[in-house]
Amino acid sequence: MGSETIQIAIAQSDTTALIEALEDKTLPIEDVQTIYNAFKTDKLIVGQAAMNLSLRTSVYERDREYSPIMVELLIDISQNTVDMGARWAVAKNPHTPVEVLRHLANDTINLVRALVAANPSTPSDVLEKFFSDEKIVRDGLSGNPNTPAKLLKILCDDNDKMVRMRLAENRAAPKEIIALLLQDTDPDVSKAAEVNLGERA
């Protein structure tokens, strides 16, 4: 859908067509912003705009798709109260500014906090506070490259296999912590630790 067609859909309040346009992650970011700004109070539009930003962002290629418009949209959506799901998308986006992540770290919804805990852009002082949060939030810490080593060491003994698994796969965790997981009772965890150490050799 071209920019002209989008303007027509906005003028006609054709939200179905606009949501369909937002489902395309190659839609120019300027068009995403135009649609979002025109329908900030529409829960479905806000949610789909947030999802569009999520789809176009790769955690592995964090510089891809970065733009001032992307950041502007993430800030605005984080303050938009019409759709909780939109805050989830902002909480996990690696382009979300640190001050927004700090704000979302106090969100009343535990899944939003959990996604902030797993976000590689979240600073370590915020991550430390999450260690005393609910289990769903704490679980995000094990795979985060910014989680302080002293917390990772404690997570080595977590009862939850998936927490230890994410820790074993964490490329930023100190080698000595990953080495502890080589002795893990679960073969999947010990194998993941072996692979992690092998890739650093």
Uncertain residue ranges: none
Secondary structure tally: strands: 0
**Based on helices, strands and strand pairing, what is the structural class?**
mainly alpha
Main β sheet profile: none
Instruction: Please state the average pLDDT score.
Output: 91
Distance between the termini: 48 Å
| H/E series | HHHHHHHHHHHHHH
Structure description:
- The chain is mainly α.
- Helices cover about 60% and strands about 0% of the residues.
- The chain contains 14 helices and no strands.
- It has helices at about 5-10, 15-20, 30-40, 45-55, 70-80, 85-90, 100-105, 110-120, 125-130, 135-140, 150-155, 160-170, 175-180, 185-200.
- α4 (about 45-55) packs parallel to α6 (about 85-90) and α5 packs across α6 (about 85-90).
- It is elongated.
- The chain starts with a helix and ends with a helix.
- The relative contact order is 0.07.
- The model has no long low-confidence stretch (mean pLDDT about 90).
Brief sketch in words of this structure:
The chain is mainly alpha-helical.
State the main characteristics.
0% strand, 201 residues, mainly alpha, elongated
Any chance you could write out the topology, listing elements then pairs?
Layout: H1 3-11, H2 15-22, H3 29-38, H4 43-55, H5 68-78, H6 84-92, H7 98-104, H8 110-118, H9 124-130, H10 135-138, H11 149-155, H12 161-169, H13 175-180, H14 187-200
Helix pairs in contact: 2-4, 3-4, 4-6, 5-6, 6-8, 12-14
